[in-house]
Design brief:
Strand content: 15-25%
Bound molecules: nicotinamide-adenine-dinucleotide
Radius of gyration: 19 Å
Number of strands: 13
Order of helices and strands: EHEEHEHHEHEEHEEEHEEHEH
Number of helices: 9
Shape: globular
CATH architecture of the domain at 5-172 and 215-240 and 278-290: 3-Layer(aba) Sandwich
Distance between the termini: 35 Å
Structural class: alpha/beta
CATH topology of the domain at 5-172 and 215-240 and 278-290: Rossmann fold
Helix content: 25-40%
Strand order of the largest sheet: 3-2-1-4-5-6-11
Largest sheet: 7 strands, parallel
CATH superfamily of the domain at 5-172 and 215-240 and 278-290: NAD(P)-binding Rossmann-like Domain
C-alpha cells in the first residue's frame, strides 16, 4: 500500500501499532487512541512526519470532521478484556458498539473507501463444529463477544444501506512482542513468559487440555493491509488453522527458557471456551496466508523481546 490516507483507531495498541509501523513510511497515517491500554512507544518512530496522532477517546470526537479524505479505516480501538466486559457491560457497549456506529457514520458521510474491522473468534462461543467457519451462527458468551457480534451486524448493515465496503477480520489468539504482560487479564503467552522470567509459578485455568489457534501479530497486521486492498466484502477468520493445547504451549515456552517450573492449575474461568480452531479457507479471499513452520521461531522472538524488557 502506498500514498494512501489511513486511519487506525487503537493504533497505539498491541496490534494497531504493528499496522501503523508497517504503513507509516509510504502512507499518511492518522491514529486515534485514548491510551487506555495503548503506549506511544509501541510506534517505531512516534515523531514520524507521516503521523498524525489524536490522543482522544473515539466517543469524544466529531468523527464527521476528522474523516475527510480518508481511503481506509482500520478499526481496532475497543475494550478488549473479556473479564472487564463481564464486570462493566455498559462501558463495554459504549466503548465497542457506540463508538463503532459513530465511526461507520463518519465513514459514510465522508465516502471512505473501506473499513477493516478487528473482530474476534470469541463471537463463536462454545461451538464444537471445529474447525470453525465464518458461516457458523455467533453464540457470544460474554458482553465482549456480544459487542463484537453487534459491530459485525452494524458493519454489514452499513454495507447494505449505504454501500460502505468492509472486511471483518475475526482474529483467533494473537501473540507477539509488546503484548501487555502487566494487565491482570494478560493473554496466556506473555503471562507464561513473564512468570517464568520472574521465577514464579504460571497459572493455568482448567486442566490445560483446552486448545487454541495462535497467530503472530506481524501476520495479523499484514492481513489487515491485504484486507483493505482486497475487493472482498465479508468475514475472514485470521488464524493458523492449527490447534495447540495450553499444556503443549507451556512446554514449548518452558523448554525455550530452560525452566523446570511447574504451573499452578486453578478452576476454569467463567466465559472461557474449551476448544478453538479456525477454518482458514476464506483467508485466500484477501490473498493472505501464514507459514506455520515459523511458529516456534515466532515464540522465540516473543520470548527474546520479553527478556530484553525485563
Ligand atoms: N489480541 C488478541 O488476541 C485479539 C483477538 C481478537 C480480537 N482482537 C481485537 O483486536 C483489536 C486490538 O486488540 P489489541 O490486542 O491490540 O488490544 P489493545 O488493548 O492493545 O489495543 C486497543 C487500543 O485501543 C485504544 N482504545 C480503546 N478504546 C478506545 C476508545 N474508545 N477510543 C480510542 N482509543 C481506544 C487503547 O488505548 C489501545 O491502544 C481489538 O478490537 C480486539 O478486540 C484482539
Amino acid at each position: 500500500m502506498k500514498n494512501k490516507n489511513v486511519l487506525i483507531t487503537g493504533g497505539l495498541g498491541f496490534i494497531g501499532s504493528y499496522i501503523a509501523n508497517q504503513l507509516i513510511d509510504d502512507n499518511n497515517v492518522t491514529i486515534i487512541d485514548d491510551l487506555s491500554t495503548g503506549n506511544i512507544n509501541y510506534l517505531n518512530n512516534p515523531n514520524h512526519e507521516n503521523l498524525n496522532l489524536i490522543k482522544k477517546n473515539l466517543n469524544s470526537l466529531d468523527l464527521n470532521s476528522i474523516l475527510i479524505d480518508f481511503d481506509y479505516v482500520f478499526h481496532l480501538a475497543a475494550l478488549v478484556s473479556v473479564p472487564l466486559s463481564v464486570k462493566n457491560p455498559i462501558t463495554c457497549n459504549l466503548e465497542n458498539v457506540t463508538s463503532t456506529v459513530n465511526l461507520l457514520n463518519g465513514c459514510v458521510n465522508n465516502n471512505v473507501k473501506k473499513i477493516v474491522f478487528s473482530s474476534s473468534s470469541a463471537i463463536y462461543g462454545e461451538n464444537n463444529n471445529l474447525p470453525l467457519k465464518e458461516t457458523e451462527v455467533p453464540m457470544p458468551s460474554s458482553p465482549y463477544a456480544a459487542s463484537k457480534a453487534s459491530c459485525e451486524l452494524y458493519i454489514k448493515s452499513f454495507f447494505e444501506s449505504y454501500g460502505l465496503d468492509y472486511t471483518i477480520l475475526r482474529y483467533f489468539n494473537v501473540f507477539g512482542p509488546k503484548q501487555d504482560k502487566n494487565s491482570p487479564y494478560a493473554a496466556v503467552i506473555p503471562n507464561f513468559i513473564n512468570a517464568i522470567l520472574e521465577n514464579k509459578q504460571p497459572i493455568i485455568y482448567g486442566d490445560g487440555e483446552q486448545t487454541r489457534d495462535f497467530i503472530f501479530v506481524e501476520d495479523v497486521a499484514k492481513a489487515n493491509i491485504l484486507a483493505a486492498e482486497s475487493q472482498y466484502n465479508g468475514i475472514v477468520n485470521i488464524a493458523r488453522g492449527e490447534k495447540i493445547s495450553i499444556n503443549q504451549l507451556y512446554n514449548i515456552i518452558k523448554n525455550e527458557l530452560d525452566s523446570e517450573i511447574v504451573p499452578k492449575y486453578l478452576p476454569p474461568r467463567m466465559s472461557d471456551i474449551k476448544h478453538s480452531l479456525a477454518n482458514i479457507d476464506n483467508m485466500s479471499k484477501i490473498k493472505f496466508n501464514v507459514n506455520n513452520h515459523l511458529f516456534e521461531h515466532q515464540i522465540k522472538c516473543t520470548i527474546n523481546w520479553f527478556k530484553n524488557e525485563l
